[in-house]
Amino acid sequence: MPHPEPAFSGVVADTREKSTPAFPAPVLAAKGAPNVILILLDDVGFSASSTFGGAAQTPELDRLAARGLRYNQFHTTALCSPTRASLLTGRNQHQVGFGNLADVATGYPAYNSIWKNESASIARVLRLNGYSTAAFGKWHNTPLWEISPVGPFDHWPTGFGFEYFYGFQAGETSQWEPQLYRNTVAVEPTKKPEQGYHLTSDLVDDAVKWLHNHEAVAPEKPFFLYFATGATHAPHHVPKEWIDKYKGRFDQGWDRLREENFARQKALGVIPANAKLTARPEGLPAWESLTADQRRLFAHQMEVYSAFLSHTDHEVGRLLKALDDEGRAADTLILYIVGDNGGSAEGGLNGSDSNLGTLQGSNTEVAFQSQHLSDLGSPLFDNHYAAGWSWATTTPFQWMKQIASHFGGTRNPLVVSWPGHLRETQAIRSQFGHVNDIAPTIYAAAGVTFPEKVDGVAQLPLEGVSLLPSFADPSAKSAHREQYFEIFGNRAIYKDGWVAGARRYAPWEAFTNLPRLFRGGFENDRWELYHVDEDFSEARDLAEQNPEKLAELKAEFDREARRNAVYPLVPIPEPDKFPSPASGKSHFVFYDGVERLPTRVLPEIGARSHKITAVIDNDDGKAEGVIIAEGGRHGGYSLYVKDGRPSYQNNLFGQTLEKLVASKPLPRGRVTIVYEFDVDFSLTEAAKGLLSSALVAKARPGVGRLTVNGEEVASSHLSLFGGFRSIGTETLDIGKDLGSPVSSDYDSPFAFAGRVEKVEIDLKK
């Protein structure tokens, strides 16, 4: 593939009268090939939804399950980028280049975040077999240094066979003020949050519009629609009216909620009657041990999260209703995966944000968060939930997201609907499955023979197997008999009803204890053994009773690890060595009109002294607005003119705002404004220890100075500058501040009234 051009079927003669024209016939899908909608939610544990026993009401998912199948032994990889790479190719994540997150790529083929050409995507194969293709939502599989206005675009969705893409790049974005792309062009939301904008609603609106256009032009052509929400990944952003529905619903705490979920799961039949409820992991506090303030805050965090999931369910329901309204539901295969990993403990024990902000100095204390209780879910707060809730939403299993050694990290619900092709509906399926099974399932349903070559490149064999036999036969044996798992050294091997696994750390400490996350000593890791054919929830460790089986499976993991290039385990990421266009440079020039430049193509200024020089025109004396801004309301900096005076805003995680304001108004004419920052100290190599400098805190205290035409007009000591690049996907803009505003002095975009000639950034030695 692609198929050779067909031979010309007309006649070419020496005169027009003797010739017969003929256009080449387009590639057509196999007769009866279904439309395919593949839905993937983000950071949803096995028992979060009501469809699988959770407290968050998901009536639209319930409705889909009632006319389809629920798979209760389906697995992801335990992390975002790897799951998506495996899902969209039918291979294992290391084979595709996504052994871990794109954000922490390393210079090894299995971990470099460069999608391999020998792993063609579902979209590419289906498009070459007569399908229309489109992707909406989260795309976390482009190398970060290739996310820029000039690409390259080979590793964007449109480079992998999707004819249309609308969504965001990287792991997360604000649901209220997202950084969006249409195909490869940055675009802004059409409304503000106060006007009712929400990302999930916007994605559904755009997907429905695409469906309607497809129906209008090519209703006879099957389509593949990939819909991957940013929900329910942090930040947990959701309209207040949805939050209010859950008031008081989680005052009982996570220990009790887990018991309630467990009872509901057995009543629904989504877990076996003999399944055991596993114990709370060490290090996770009992609900009864918490203070009243902690309980009040944490309960509200779960109210917000559950509202987020219910809101997401409602919006996905709108997409499915549009399909029904078009009369296309009957010929559409829907595969709905409820989460790309288990519930996320990345908010830590107190539930702050989901990134490195804690390491950089973000305030995560309960007292601070409690002051902002009413802001949770709003644009003003980058909120998560406490780790205990991630454990509760993975009932009945051990552990959660990142922990690939246990089902709490890798077991996610799958709901399948395909009218006329299922032997029964409202039924449970318990065949072992994995995200790499989705591609072969779709190919089998579409009558597509997987190609040996795509674009001249020999293809890796599919690792997954089709789930199609289980659609018709509830007793069909699991065709997927073996599967390895590995994320950050947490690893496991499943084979014929047995699982052996080794866990390295608790996920709530991942961003606060980086030396532990990246430590060596893998040979000393303790392995556990479970006979999951008889022990659904991995409740009984048989390692001591059956050392022979454990040794057999450990050897099998080693074989699979070598075959899939899993080694070396946990290579230390070095983002400062990414092949970025900013690498090795100390002088940068940005002209008027530059906007939406992501962090990985920019100079890293948080940990070092630097100078910003801006040349502007103020001929009429009315210059006002942003000159340069990077980041947003949850962290960044902005140099701007307000009320006629140059100002500089340092925004530390949205929690500490420090400002320099010029002592005199901006003069008329051509003006040079210089902002200089000199750090108080730099981190020595010895202090960095064994970790990459890019993983060490990028926030430093220092002195900021503002000069206009060579005259100092403001200076101040900043308690801390930097760290903001770890907390989201907001960008650098010249002459405006797109996305959310860095400063509360203005509303975005606060475009500069006047002319920004150019802005230069110089890194000091």
Question: Could you give a quick summary of the protein structure above?
Answer:
This protein has 765 residues and is an alpha+beta fold.
Sheet with the most strands, sense and barrel status: 10 strands, mixed
Q: How much helix, percentage-wise, in residues?
A: 10-25%
Proportion of β residues?
15-25%
Rg computed from alpha carbons, rounded to a whole number of angstroms: 27 Å
Could you report the average pLDDT, rounded to the nearest whole number? 93
Physical arrangement of strands within the biggest beta sheet: 7-6-5-4-8-1-9-10-2-11
Please tally the helical runs, counting DSSP H or I stretches of 4 or more residues: 17
Summing up helix and strand content along with how strands pair, one would put the structural category as alpha+beta
Topology:
Blueprint (H helix, E strand, L loop, with lengths): L34 E6 L18 H8 L2 E3 L2 E2 L4 H8 L5 H4 L25 H6 L4 E8 L25 E5 L10 E3 L2 E3 L11 H19 L5 E6 L11 H5 L8 H16 L23 H34 L6 E6 L19 H4 L5 H5 L16 H6 L14 H4 L3 E4 L9 E3 L3 E2 L3 H9 L6 E2 L2 E2 L9 H5 L9 E6 L2 E6 L2 E5 L11 H4 L9 E5 L15 H17 L23 E5 L18 E9 L6 E8 L2 E8 L2 E8 L3 E6 L7 E11 L5 H4 L10 E10 L2 E12 L9 E3 L20 E9 L2
Helix pairs in contact: 5-8
